[in-house]
Amino acid sequence: MTASEKADITQDTFLVGLGASPGISIGETYLLNRARLTVVERPIVEAEVEKEVLTFLDAVRLSKKQLEEVKAGVTDRQLAEHLYIIDTHLLILEDQMLIDDTIEIIKGERVNAEGALKRTLDRFRKVFDSIEDEYLRERRSDIDSVGNRLLRNLKGETQQALTEFDRKVIIVAHDLSPADTMQIDKEKIIAFVTDVGGRTSHTAILARSMGIPAVVGLETVSSIVPGGTPAIIDGTNGTVILNPSADTFREYLKKKQSFEYLEKELLSYRELPAETTDGYRIALRGNLEMSDEVPLAQSQGAEGIGLFRSEFLFMNRLLPPSEEEQFQSYRQIVERMAPHPVTIRTLDVGGDKFVPEINLTDEANPAMGLRAIRFSLKERRLFKSQLRAILRASAFGRVRIMFPMISGVAEIRSCKECLEGAKAELSAQDIPFDPQLPVGIMIETPSAALISDLLAREVDFFSVGTNDLIQYCLAVDRGNEHVAYLYEPLHPAILKALEMICASAKKAGIGVGMCGEMAGEPLYSLVLLGMGFEEFSMNAPGIPRVKRVLRRVSREDGERLLEELKQLTTAQEVARRLEEEMGRRFPEIFGAPAI
Ligand code: PEP
Ligand code: MG
Fold it and tell me: What is the mean pLDDT of residues 566-581?
């Protein structure tokens, strides 16, 4: 790194990517060479075939050995929970298709091992690239990691380990494999930034679990930032600042200190109950899309899962998962979350969660079309297999079942009939399940809110899906940026609907919670408490912040604030008053920035 290279980067150069792991780090960059390998495909003669096959098999063996060594080197308990990622990579190395296809190409098409492997990997990648779901698409990175390792070993190239630093550095790389990330020396690597990756990549999940700030998806960072560049990484909002000025440096030093102070304080909340000053106990649970998010939910002190979005099991595959496969997935989550409950929501496909393999109809207005429970009630066989799988999992822990997008009483009655049918079948087959399995519904349509008193007589609990409730009540597509300004959680109509839903639940004596994004936003916690919500389910990292607010307020405070907000007529007025009140009570979270 020369002085002139450093001078190429203008002072206070801001880059924006995706915040993959929160926190602020200030230090110098270290450019890690993880560039894509150049693969040279060349034709071979008959006499070379055997040698190329053996070279390939040697590379497979060496790759396995290296991964076993990474596994053996992990002693950190939190990290050990993620070892399954390395196991996945080991499984890929044992994949018969990968091995056989490559050997077949070497033999049949007379191509060297490197070229043959690349052809096989390209086929795998093609399948993953056609996947729309972000989480599953990210799983392509597992193939890339394994493929790169194999290619490196084939070419006899060594790769710098992330354990060899003598000073603290911010790693800048095109990409990092989970194996790289697992080897990170937390003392020396204070942050990392990469060109590729999304928030749900394994590498991002690992960074979060290690508490190392990370920004991913910066596209070209590894080609524009020289090593040794002073940098600030803000993993909370995905910002990277290169060559910071003295003022920027001071500003971020303060932000870093207050972030760390708050984090430390929040950690102390992990084991504490979310109990208000007047003794109301609120359950804070996690929203889950994939079973590998369970450790994260646990680490944040989630008292169970308030929403398991089961549709993610159905995405990006040609055929829906069988009853057995679903049962195994549900059972695993239920057992891991014990003794806490797991709320499994039945398939919610359609609308913005279009699954081409099963949503066969092309709808003009999908958000109002054959979505969620409407789809399940039409596809009874699929529905029945899911109900059976959920019931079977209920024999292994506390399970609650929840139906999405209910819009009327007849619909919930049909659901319950199907559930009873599934129970009868299982009983006849002597398959155990929890006969008392609580049945709940999501309240996310205006009609469900308006007749919540009637629906409350039919079920054991409500969970409000504010993401959809707001969309449908205010007639604002939740994914349309042109009308995003109208998507107002504090619209008086929404406050009215929420209050009404709570009142209906209370009157009927059933549980009432919320699992839409509003539940995880601490700004709303006090007013939602005032309405009478007893459970909030959210993305797990939001739990400590919400808990911190709830433990310092009383329900009476909430009721008073609610009464005041109800007098206001626009969302802007409500927001202003709420921000003022929460800023006064919690200046360190909602007050003006400390700088
Ligand atoms: C909601 O609508 O608020 C909700 C939690 O469900 P989803 O976001 O999966 O539609
Ligand atoms: Mg919804």
Answer: 97
